[in-house]
Amino acid sequence: GFGADSVFVSLSNGDGSFGEAQSVLDSFTVNNGGWGDQGEVPRMVGDFNGDGRDDIIGFGFNDVQISFSNADGTFSEAQVADIGAEGSSNFTVNSGGWTSQDQYPRAVADIDGDGRDDIIGFGQDSIFYALSEGDGSFTESEILNLEGASNFTIGAGGWTRQGQFPRFLDDINGDDKADIVGFGSESVFAALA
After folding, report:
1. What are the pLDDT digits (tens) for 40-85?
2. CA-to-CA distance for 165 and 174, rounded, in angstroms?
3. What is the chain's alpha carbon radius of gyration, rounded to the nearest angstrom?
4. What angle do CA 181, 184, 186 make, to 5 degrees?
5. Which of 19, 94, 7, 88 is nearest to 55 (CA)?
6. Residue 23's Cα: distance from chain center in Å?
7. Which residues pair with 119 in a beta bridge?
8. Are residues 183 and 158 in contact, defined by beta-carbon separation less than 8 angstroms?
9. Residue 86 region, left (φ>0) first, then alpha (ψ -120 to 50), else beta?
10. Residue 49 in contact with residue 134, Cβ under 8 Å?
């Protein structure tokens, strides 16, 4: 969990119970980096280097930060996750206009089937993605050219609020690539990767 001053982890005991919460990292918190509102500067977990352990990623005001999981339940110090060769900080509040997780949600999922979670952002008229390179960097963000994908945006499909019309990324056809599933006002929609 993300506390005011620390990130806490409770490791699973494997029997449905968890160990005592331990402070493992002081990044990604309200008092250490200004990570105040999850709706504006969201933090997520996903496996970005393909080692089978979930890491932490945060979409801040000016940059995207990532912290890799260690085998002992702790995390490496946060580092800026370069997006693209020029070190772009797209998917942030001040670079790309990602001002609201409710209107313009960002998500993490493996969309190319390489075992590493990638970044996906639902913009005004397009869906953008950046593929994980496995080392804390990502490819340059591009428009997702998936049949029907743009229908999951505000401009093209009226998906105005994630809270009301949620969109999820998960593999629904068993090909190891995350697909888009969206819950509209009258139907559930899908776009396959």
Report:
1. 999 999 999 999 999 999 999 999 999 999 989 999 999 999 998 7
2. 24
3. 17
4. 125
5. 7
6. 22
7. 108, 130
8. no
9. alpha
10. yes
pTM > 0.85: yes
**Cα(157)–Cα(58) distance, rounded to whole angstroms?**
27
Residues 6 or more apart in contact with residue 190 via CB below 8 angstroms: 172, 179, 180, 181, 182
Q: What is the pLDDT of residues 75-127, one digit of tens each?
A: 999 999 999 876 667 899 998 889 999 999 999 999 999 999 999 999 998 99
- In 3D, which of 54, 81, 180, 175 has the Cα closest to residue 128? 180
At 25, list the tokens: 């990292």
Nearest to 80 by CA among 19, 7, 136: 136
CA–CA dist 142, 153 (Å, integer): 15
CB 29 within 8 A of CB 58: no
Q: For residue 157, what are its two tokens?
A: 């499909």
Over residues 143-151, the mean pLDDT reads 82
Q: How many of the other CB atoms lie within 10 Å of CB of 33?
A: 16
- Burial profile 104-132: b = 16 or more Cβ within 10 angstroms, e = fewer: bbbbbbbbeeeebbbbbbbbeebbbbbbb
3-state SS of 126-157? Answer: CEEEECECCCCCECCCEECCCCCHHHHCHHHH
* 29: its two tokens: 């918190």
